[in-house]
Amino acid sequence: MSDMAHLYLMRHGQTLFNSLKMIQGWCDSPLTELGVQQAKAAADYFCKNGITFDHAYSSTSERACDTLEIVTGGTLRYERLKGLKEWNFGRFEAQSEFLNPPLPYGDFFKYAGGEGESEVKERIVSTIRSIMQREHHESVLVVTHGGALANFSRAFDQYAAEGARFRSGIKNCSIFHYEWNGTYFKCLEIIEVDVS
Q1: CA spacing 20 to 30 A to 117: which of 75, 101, 111, 175?
Q2: How far apart are CA 87 and CA 123, in angstroms?
Q3: How confident is the model at residue 103 (pLDDT cuts 50, 70, 90)?
Q4: Catalytic residue among 6, 33, 55, 86
């Protein structure tokens, strides 16, 4: 591996539950037509900027796998990892987003049979760190979820620094471009794809 590697960490495209403002978590719903278009727009962004990947990884959730397959045109083999799944929201899964408490969530969902914030952060950081420590990983695509991505970013201060920008959440198919030096992740840019 070279001294620096690049991680492109992105959220999946819009899903049916997203459009209905429902808490998704470990349950799943299919991409909407807009979600498909968002994934295609992400693919166009990578193509236009000459960005290719030597490895790709996805959450085991269908919405993330489908997004990755659209982005890569189905031509790149990828690995599905449970460690990349969304926050487990326990009994709040498939309920209205209006039931979400104010941020930060802390252990709110843990008491409902789900995960606490520190557990999600530890899981997602550990999983992505272990991916980037593998041999010959110099340009990596990882497709995950909004809550998982936010917690990864918080671990390296980027989400907190960009707090005002993300008050309404991380948009579907947003791409966080990180540089990895073997120890630490540095966010170089955040790309929000345009489907207009």
Answers
A1: 175
A2: 10
A3: confident
A4: 86
The answer to whether the beta carbons of residues 160 and 17 sit under 8 Å apart is: no
Which H/E stretch holds residue 191? strand 185-191
| Contact indicator for 25, 113 with CB cutoff of 8 Å | no
129 closest CA partner among 114, 140, 117, 115: 140
Is 86 among the residues known to form the active site? yes
- Count of alpha carbons within 13 Å of 25, Cβ hemisphere only? 23
Cβ partners under 8 Å of residue 19, min gap 6: 32, 34
Whether 12 is catalytic:
yes
User: Could you say which of 6, 12, 55, 137 is catalytic?
Assistant: 12
* pTM, rounded to two decimals: 0.93
Q: Tell me: the pLDDT tens digits for 148-184?
A: 999 998 888 655 555 445 556 799 999 999 999 999 9
User: What stretches of the chain show up as alpha helix (H) in DSSP?
Assistant: 16-19, 33-48, 62-72, 117-132, 146-155, 158-161
